[in-house]
Amino acid sequence: MKPIFCLMLLALAACGAKNDGLDYGKTTVAALVAQRGPPVEEKPIPLEGGKMLIYDGNEKFQVKGEIVTHGFKDPKGDETLLMYWRHRFKDCAVLERKISEAQGHVRPEQELTCAAEGVTVIYTQDSEFVSRIIYHEKM
Question: What are phi and psi of 113, to 5 degrees?
Answer without folding.
Answer: -120, 135
